[in-house]
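User: Predict the structure for this protein chain, please.
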Amino acid sequence: MKYLRSPWWLGTTALLAWVLLWDASGLDLQVMQLLGTAEGFPLKTEPWLSHVLHNRAQQAATGVYMLMWLTVWWPWGPWRALTRRERAASALAVTASLLSVSVLKHFSLTSCPWDLRLFGGPADYVSHWAWGLRDNGGGQCFPGGHASTAFGFLALSLPFLLSGQGPLRRHGGRLLVGTVLVGLLFGATQTVRGAHYPSHTFWTAWICWTVGLGVYHLVAPRASKPRD
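Assistant: Here is the predicted structure, written as structure tokens:
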């Protein structure tokens, strides 16, 4: 129960409140209408966005995932300051975060913005909270899969952030900020292409962080206690 009163969980709750407020604002559709037309989204097939920041970025994320597991057994740099249990707990938390987004997408009935009638597709706009209500599109577009290729790695920062050593905490802070920035970049890439609403990116960040934090605390409870 101490974990639930920690600054990390309080921050998680605050982030949830902010994302819920964004959802309630109705800004998702307004943003997409600024980016798309009745003929679709002009930047959908822009090479830098579709090939570099999407396809190549996904390949890079796969490489980072493999390197992460290798680091569990053969640590290097700041990872050597962590126990194997901490490294394994972090890797399992990342895996759980990525899987959670994949599972939610698989069962989601929400279609992508570029599938809407407003932008030349067959689907009607239906909130991703209207569970069980189909929008006449292909679905499987919530949360954001591409954003999760960055946000899924948020848990890599946890063993450093929860360390009692100042240098490790600072390293964890840099990891956290860097991962958030890359996740926002990937999410924005898909938004301007018409693949995802802004809220999909925000929910992906919250889901990945929350799942990662929970799994890390379960797997490495001693290591994850905040230290003075």
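Confidence is low (pLDDT under 50) at residues 223-228.
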